[in-house]
Fold this protein.
Amino acid sequence: MADPAAQASPQPRLQQNQASMTAGSNASSGSGSGSGSGNSDPARPGLSQQQRASQKKAQVRAFPRAKKLEKLGVFSACKANDTCKCNGWKNPHPPTATRLDLQQQAASLSEPCRSCGHALAEHVSHLENVSEEEINRLLGMVVDVENLFMSVHKEEDTDTKQVYFYLFKLLRKCILQMSKPVVEGSLGSPPFEKPNIEQGVLNFVQYKFSHLAPKERQTMVELSKMFLLCLNYWKLETPSQFRQRSQKDDSTAYKVNYTRWLCYCHIPQCNDSLPRCETTQVFGRSLLKSIFTVTRRQLLEKFRTEKDKLLPEKRTLILTHFPKFLSMLEEEIYGENSPIWDADFTMPASEGGQIGHQTAVISPASVSGTPSFTKNSSSTCSLGSASLDTGVSEPMPGEKRRLPEALTLEDAKRIRVMGDIPMELVNEVMMTITDPAAMLGPETSLLSANAARDETARLEERRGIIEFHVIGNSLSQKSNKRILMWLVGLQNVFSHQLPRMPKEYITRLVFDPKHKTLALIKDGRVIGGICFRMFPTQGFTEIVFCAVTSNEQVKGYGTHLMNHLKEYHIKHGILYFLTYADEYAIGYFKKQGFSKDIKVPKSRYLGYIKDYEGATLMECELNPRIPYTELSHIIKRQKEIIKKLIERKQSQIRKVYPGLTCFKEGVRQIPVESIPGIREAGWKPGGRDKCSKELKDPDLLYNILKNLLAQIKTHPDAWPFMEPVKKAEAPDYYEIIRFPIDLKTMTERLKNRYYVTKKLFIADLQRVITNCREYNPPDSEYCKCANTLEKFFYFKLKESGLIDK
Amino acid sequence: MALVSTDTKIAEYLTELHQLIKQTQEERSRSEHNLLNIQKTHERMQTENKTSPYYRTKLRGLYTTAKADAEAECSILRHALDKIAEIKSLLEERRIAAKMAGVYSDSDPPRKTMRRGVLMTLLQQSAMTLPLWIGKPGESPPPLCGAIPASSDYVAKPGDKVAARVKAVDGDEQWILAEVVSYSHSTNKRHTLSRRRIIPLPQWKANPETDPEALFSKDHLVLALYPQTTCFYRALIHTPPHRPQDDYSVLFEDTSYADGYSPPLNVAQRYVVACKENKKK
């Protein structure tokens, strides 16, 4: 399409326009423009550049028809015959002096083309019956093409240059075909992400500041508008600059966004043949994430250096509030679980109500001179010769969980319990515990002793110290090198922390494409992970390995890992975890909500899950309504609210009762309703009796009893009761003990489904003990064993809910 | 009762500390002024390009004042550091007393056992807030500063943190982190150990910039607290700290690694002590 010859010819013609076109490639140079108001507003070269372009267009459109045709002829293919391949009329007498456009006579239609020799008329024959309006549209494109051509030559950054060149070709083609320009390729079409930046920032203002007084809130709204306006005119850093700065692998994704931004936002600013979109309306969080740190620094720097030019009232706003505003926004941009990016973000109605969106958008004039849209684009040519079509479909390295926070908010609204505390009261209490000052104060690194187990880990994740990625090997596509490195890291952590597992076995599973691993990354290195295998058809996931490297233990990482894994599975619709836990892991899994009580029917996992000798099968059922990574935080907040509510209630009911003394006198238990004042405080009887109900499901009972019996049998003091007493060892035993029982017999009875109620089971267990006490002297070794075993199994019975606590 | 009086005492000290800090600022602005004078005099001398006796006397006077000012500021700062140490020791006394009495403060409700994570945070905090020893010029660091061991006749005080060599359940000997309850009184259930089996932990950090001799050097054999545990293991110093707040980087003896040592791990100055025995096992 754009052969070198075709490009070469318009060059001399364009020279006179060069000055006004320089800015096309580099917005930072406001200098050298000779025309109009170009230089009057140095802070807004984007606008002036746009003005220059439209001025030029107006000028061209005012030409006489003949001159217009000549101009279009330059970009129109020769139609003399089918064999002529000439794609643009070239003036045989190129103008030599500059500034001749207006004076010079239009070339006559019979003038032959310098390249193919056919007359100009042959090139513009298709324009004969075209309306003036369409001619003008095409002329607009011609001006834009000329500008783009200059931009291609001026631009130093390879990536940007490519885009300019692509658009140059595109517009040329459109003039030839008289069509409308559409950017093709795999860039996708706007909007590229939802919710967009504008929505996110507005949500942020609502989320963080809706509790403020109207005046302060308005300040924040203004700041947000200013921020959005700045972003719309901000020049992004080039992909090569981004690569140098971030050293992360997401530079491919950034390049795609950068290209989109050039095509849809930046270039159309002064090139109105192309449809223009606002950056903040078509891009979302991902772009903001990649540009925020740099843009923030530049913005603040700009404001600092230009603070004298600001209006006094704006100065305080910008210099005092803006940095804080940006820091708070930063947390929401990089925070894993920020709700402001939820598609259906809604704010629980508070007394402050919604922040008025009707506030007038700050017009560019009202922030006069404040935002600067320039950025030094001193770029280095480097790397990549990738075309516009690359990089979009690259598999993302790790899937990041988005928290279904909207769900919990909705649920909170939907489920209203009868007689519940009115929402207004809760909101009021919320106000007293969310101290806005606390939010802005210095971050304390010293957590209180009562902080939740995963509090540190959660904070570290929010600050980007640690990261979580679900990764896995793949045989069908070439894995990213970084992922392979992480997998090796995981294999090392597992084999080091699980010395009893053969290293080859660990390697085999970690690199098996059916297994995935949730990796915990700190400083780019793997410090822990959970290897798992999902069985979507069976509705469960097997947890295969789980470890954190020894010097990073006891920091809550294990808990946070498991919580991330839970959220990942909720997203994928799997609600059961199964794992064979060895004796050291049982404690950990219990803390993570696992139990030995298996609810998944055996038929569903038998033959799927790897069975380990001497390990205990444990299960965890997930509740899709729980945001696990935030759970401890939510509970902490709920506790605070309830504490406040209790305090309020206490201040309302002034009567003070003397404390109960009956416990000191040896009473073990009293009915709740007999506590003086408890009814007056709002306590209602009932609702508690469900707990002791007999388990209906026989399979469930069977499983509980099986687990229980297994644990009792492994107790160190169970050895005397493992098998029936041998007559040879105690000849008179069966004369004294009328109902002998032992753990082996009990196991058989269990297998034969004899224990249809828990009562039968407990009775047999108790008999083991009473038989022993009956036959043996109380201070004998056997009786000591019986005592400890009895304590142990009553504890276990309580724990499994078979008897009341 | 005792607790209340400690509280008032601490409050008192804090006020004094506050005043001291204010005084420092005053002192600082005074020396600032003088330093500026010195600078100006030098500039003037530069322009006149000769050292007249007038300037010589003037400069001498100025430098003497500046030195006196700096010393005054220094002594106030030292005074403030002493106050902080006193407050810390009062807090420590109170903690020990509370523990003895079995009383818990409101801020930490009674828990039968402290969660391990919390204990680890406390240990890190204790390492972080270990005071830095700041000697006068020419003064060499005292025992229990950085790598300098306690004197041979040192008897650990109650509340001191030590590395203690104890027999574990399986009969193996292990160095564990311990706190001294009392000396030479046998207490029930607690370990009573001979003094040989105790290594007191440093009570000051050594400043690598001023007292590098009070730090273990590279490849020195030490006992270091393994991160996130309360056990000391033999390790080699990989790199000593460069700045006062830096940690040692050490290589733990670990047979599960091919070369017999773990990768470098960070351990605070507070938890690195000299390894006494050198016997092979």
